[in-house]
Design a protein that fits this description.
CATH architecture of the largest domain: 3-Layer(aba) Sandwich
InterPro entries: VWF_A (IPR002035), vWFA_dom_sf (IPR036465)
CATH topology of the largest domain: Rossmann fold
Number of helices: 8
Strand content: 15-25%
Largest sheet: 6 strands, mixed
Keywords: Membrane, Transmembrane, Transmembrane helix
Pfam families: VWA_2
Strand order of the largest sheet: 5-4-3-6-7-10
CATH class of the largest domain: Alpha Beta
Protein name: von Willebrand factor type A
Organism: Jonesia denitrificans (strain ATCC 14870 / DSM 20603 / BCRC 15368 / CIP 55.134 / JCM 11481 / NBRC 15587 / NCTC 10816 / Prevot 55134)
Shape: elongated
Oligomer: single chain
Length: 332
């Protein structure tokens, strides 16, 4: 037999000591008299049995059982998505926004790694983990479908430093919790960096990365970007303006930055201005091969509560019957 406590052991132990101490004091107070009847002794014995069994159930008595289950795929895929305003630049596949390519490529990669776990980290003015590692592809598809650039009013320019720490944290947590899993990172960006400071290197993250790619979007000629305001108060058909010239701002993809990011992470990189076959960036990670066995035996604890709870219920009914008769005698 093993145990799966319903509360942390220290808290359970402290609670048990306090409850047993109070119970012992109450029992001693009622039973210390030499005139204590046999019925009262039986009553306190019954109550003691209820208390001990309840505390025992709280420890989660279990037996270990072997079960056959489908082995999970030990492959974690991280999608890191640039949502800054520049990703709305209309220089992908003609005059489509760069995010159009991102949506299509995320959908393709999700299908390529069917059965893997996926996580989404996005960054704009801030970085956040939009979705923890999950196999829920419906939720993933919903996020991809609704992917848009950040709200223009809150835009603070482009900086890859914003996502570095969030990605580092996610990868380190994944490596700690599932050290045998393989981790693949796909960074979707145009490489643009509008800050004056030199960005931090992504090289320290490479130790946690087993594959993936830096997928760049846009052209060296650049494209205009429409504003985005989901509230409906702004005009999302207007183009973002260059504050210096007053003309529509132009975002140019930074091919050198995309290459540098790939080198630092130890993964290939590419700059795309049209739909591209991504098979070269997913080869070698066949989820069916990464799963070593189709099924596996696992040992899981199975709670066995019903025998003890049945006894507790019987004792409680006995206590209720006794209390009812006692009250009736007092009334009579």
């Amino acid at each position: 037999m093993t145990f799966q406590p319903f509360a942390p052991l220290p808290a359970l132990a402290i609670t048990a000591v306090l409850v047993l101490a109070l119970f012992g004091w109450a029992a001693f107070r009622d039973l210390k008299s030499p005139a204590t009847s046999r019925g009262e002794k039986i009553t306190w014995g019954r109550r003691a049995a209820i208390l001990v069994l309840t505390l025992f159930v709280a420890t989660g008595p279990s037996v270990l059982e072997e079960r056959s289950e489908v082995a999970y795929i030990n492959l974690d895929v991280y999608f890191v998505v640039d949502r800054t305003g520049s990703m709305a630049a209309e220089d992908y596949d003609g005059n489509k926004p760069r995010l159009t390519g991102v949506r299509n490529d995320m959908t393709t990669l999700m299908a390529d790694f069917s059965g893997a776990r996926f996580s989404i980290i996005s960054f704009d003015s801030t970085a956040s983990r939009q979705m923890p590692l999950t196999t829920d592809t419906r939720a993933l598809s919903g996020w991809i479908t609704n992917l848009n650039q950040e709200i223009t009013y809150y835009s603070a320019g482009s900086s890859l430093d914003r996502v570095r720490e969030e990605l580092s944290m996610a990868l380190r947590q994944g490596a700690t919790r599932n050290p045998d899993n393989q981790r693949i990172v796909y960074l979707f960006t145009d490489g643009e960096n509008t800050t004056d400071t030199e960005r931090l290197s992504f090289a320290p993250l490479a130790q946690y990365v087993d594959g993936g790619a830096v997928l760049g979007y846009g052209t060296s000629d650049g494209g205009r970007m429409k504003t985005y305001d989901p509230s409906g108060y702004g005009n999302s058909k207007e183009y973002i303006t260059d504050w210096n010239s007053g003309d529509p701002a132009i975002s140019v993809a930074d091919a050198n930055e995309i290459t540098a990011l790939g080198n630092e992470l130890g993964v290939p990189s590419t700059l795309m201005d049209a739909p591209t076959d991504l098979s070269a960036y997913s080869d070698g990670f066949n989820p069916e091969l990464i799963t070593s066995e189709g099924r596996r035996l696992v040992t899981v604890p199975q709670l066995i509560l019903w025998p003890f709870t049945a006894v507790i219920m019987g004792l409680l009914l006995w206590e209720l019957t006794w209390q009812t008769r006692r009250a009736a005698r007092k009334v009579g």
